[in-house]
Each structure stands twice: as C-alpha cells, then as structure tokens.
Amino acid sequence: MNRMARLTYLQRLFYRNPRGYRSSELAELCGTSQRSINRDLEELQTEPYYLPLVLDDDWRWRLMEGHRFTLPPVHLSLQEAASLYLAARLLARVSDEPNPFVGRALMALGEALPPEVGAQVQKVAATHLGDADSRFAKVFEVITLGWATGRKVRIRHQGLHSAHIREYVLSPYLIEPSSVGYATYVIGYASYFEAVRTFKLERISEAELLSETFEVPEEYCGLALLSRAWGVMYGDETTQVTLRFSPAVARRVKESRWHPSQEIEDCQDGGCILRVEVPHLLEMKPWIRSWGPDCEVLAPEALRQEVAEEMQRAAETYRRDPASGASL
Q: Is the preceding omega at residue 172 within 30 degrees of 0, hence cis?
C-alpha cells in the first residue's frame, strides 16, 4: 500500500485496538519497515490527523484515553456542501430525538460556506445543537464509533412491545435513518439472537464500546437488502403491492420515485396504478393512509382488507360527536 493508504490504515488500527501496538507489530501488519512506521507515527501526530498518540513503558503506541474519533479535512464543492446541508436537514426533521451531532455538523459546514449562506446554515444549526450529554447523544456516539472502527458494543434495548430491557452484544454493520419510523436504526449481528437484527437507536437506553472487534461478512450486503425495503424492514421474499390513485393526485404520484421497483400505469380516467415489490407491508400502511380516499389498495387482498377496516374505524370516529368523547 502507498503511504497515504498506510496512514489511514494505521489510524483505523489505533481506533480498533485501545491497547495499542509496538512499532514492530505495525510494520508487520503494514508490510513495511519499522523505520517507515516510525516516520508514519510522527506524521500521524501532525496536520491533518492530529492523532494524540502515547508511548507506554512497554514500547506500545496507543491513543490517549478520552480521545474522540476525528476525520482529516474534506474538500467539497459548493454544490456538494449544499447537498450535505439538505441531507442533514432531512435527518433532523425525521428524528424522534434531537441529535446534537447534526447541529455540530451544520455549524462546521456553515463556517466553511460563503458568508451569504453560511450565516443561514449556522442559524439552522443553532436550533439542532441539543444536549450533548443526553441519553440519545451518548448512544449515538458509541454506536457510530463501533460502526466506524469495527468494534462491538454492548447495548441495553427495550422492544416496542416488551416490558423488559434486554442486553445484547452487537456488531454494528450499518446505520440507517427512516422517514417511516421517524428514527435512526442500527443493523448488525446480535449475540442474543445469534443473527442479524435491527435496533431503533431511540429504544437503546445504554451503549458501551467494547475492545472486541468484528469484521462484516463478505456475503452481507445491507444496502442491497435495504434497496428492496420500503423503510428499514428488509427480507429475501417480496410481495407485489398494487395501488390505484385518483385523477386528483395522479400527477403528484408520478412526480416521485417512491421505490426502486415501482411501475406506473396510466388509467383512462386520468388516474394511475402504482406497483411495487416490498418484503414487508407494515411500513407502507402509513403512506397509503396518508392519501386518504385518493388511494385504493387493489392487491394483496389481505392489505386491502386491513386498510379498509382502518378507514372504516376512522370514519366511525369522525361520525361521533366530539363532545361525547373524553374531556379536553
């Protein structure tokens, strides 16, 4: 590997192993001379890495305790920076919990942008700074560090329909936001299940970074699995969902790419039919209901019946006199 690749690799090694390494061990891992490694260790402590390395009595180099993972400078075009700003805004809008790291990222981005727009971005950032010591912020920090460095994390998580908090050792393979659940999810191998599972970060009460490392299996391709999902619920088998939209909303439906598998067919009355293939139907239901009477489920029949019954119950609710309900 060339020197730049080696420096990046060394940085990752130190984050993965808090005990550190002797320079001879690093030379063997990198396939280079000990003399080259010593030069690399000096460079890692200067710009742009500023890695706070400590040499212990047993000649092991390690990261200073309490150091936070930092990235070297990234050079962006104005349009790339604007894209990151929009992505961060979307993430902030679909999060159950305020994420102070979104605010920090926007603040840093605003400082780098031209003053005319940088001031606007920083005003937005100030509304998202939140509490860096909140439970969610601490969980987010640990999970992302484990994900980035390939280290396992111990989590305490309470399922939506469970009265108990369970403890798992998790190998975080992937982090994914969801506009469906207004949340952020971590996907990875969980010890209790001995299988890959999805956990909502907002339901994790505690997270601890462990020294034990992991490797993502070569056969695992989370992004490919998620490409078939409507949100974060994925699977190998899919079901075709067929929806008919009224002429009043057909143009709006055809404006967007709702799912990679979608097919749209025009109807003679000006409406349209949308077909998608998804592994789970649950995440689609709120989206279907959001169209009200302008969306009709044609297939599968079980989904059609579920939505029809929910719509009927909603209609019954609105037929009642509000005064007969609970006091406001």
A: no
With CA atoms as reference, report the closest residue to 51 among 38, 61, 59, 63: 63
Please give the biggest Cα pair distance in the chain.
Answer: 83
DSSP string, 53-71: EEE-TTS-EEEPTTPPP--
Please choose, from the candidates 183, 203, 190, 195, the residue with its C-alpha nearest in 3D space to the C-alpha of residue 153. Answer: 190
Q: What is the pLDDT of residue 324?
A: 62
Confidence of residue 95 (pLDDT cuts 50, 70, 90): confident
Range of weakest confidence among 71-75, 176-180, 206-210:
71-75
At residue 94, φ and ψ (nearest 5 deg) are -110, 25
Per the document, the length of the chain is 328
pLDDT tens for 39-51 read: 999 999 988 888 8
- Kindly report whether the peptide bond that precedes residue 48 is cis, defined as omega within 30 degrees of 0: yes
Spell out the alpha helix ranges (H) of 66-134.
78-93, 100-112, 115-126
Q: What is the mean pLDDT of the chain?
A: 90
Phi and psi (nearest 5°) for 228? -90, -15
279 Cβ contact partners less than 8 Å away, ≥ 6 residues apart: 228, 229, 233, 234, 235, 236, 237, 238, 239
Residue pair 172/208 in contact by the 8 Å Cβ criterion: no
Q: What is the pTM of this model?
A: 0.82
